């Protein structure tokens, strides 16, 4: 593998890590802040939107964590292939990793949009 390709592969992996960190930290923060804000409202409007946001953020964080576990398993499988002097191959875990990453990003964006709607509806 060329050094250019290895460098690009490393940067791609780093960018996935940054997205994962962002989803977990921002998603957790949004949940905590929205719970605090919800407690200050006497009678909140559009409560379905905050519930949808909580569910989406929970699914986003869970999806990213599952993708990370699958990625760890895939890395161990690849290391075993290299240790056994076999050709490194893609596995079915790649499909699951990509699917859970896509689910995580989509539900994260949906949760942010739902939270924005809730905040807009409850702002005077």
From TrEMBL:
Regions that span the bilayer: 21-40, 52-70, 91-120
UniProtKB keywords: Membrane, Transmembrane, Transmembrane helix
Protein name: Uncharacterized protein
């Amino acid at each position: 593998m060329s050094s250019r390709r290895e460098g690009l592969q490393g940067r791609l992996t780093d960018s996935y890590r940054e997205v994962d960190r962002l989803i977990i930290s921002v998603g957790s923060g949004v949940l905590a802040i929205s719970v605090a804000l919800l407690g200050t409202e006497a009678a909140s409007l559009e409560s379905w939107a905050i519930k949808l946001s909580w569910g989406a953020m929970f699914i986003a964080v869970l999806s990213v964590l599952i993708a990370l576990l699958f990625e760890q398993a895939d890395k161990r499988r690849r290391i075993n292939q290299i240790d056994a002097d076999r050709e490194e191959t893609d596995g079915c875990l790649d499909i699951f990793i990509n699917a859970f990453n896509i689910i995580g990003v989509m539900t994260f964006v949906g949760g942010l949009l739902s939270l924005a709607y809730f905040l807009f509806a409850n702002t005077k």
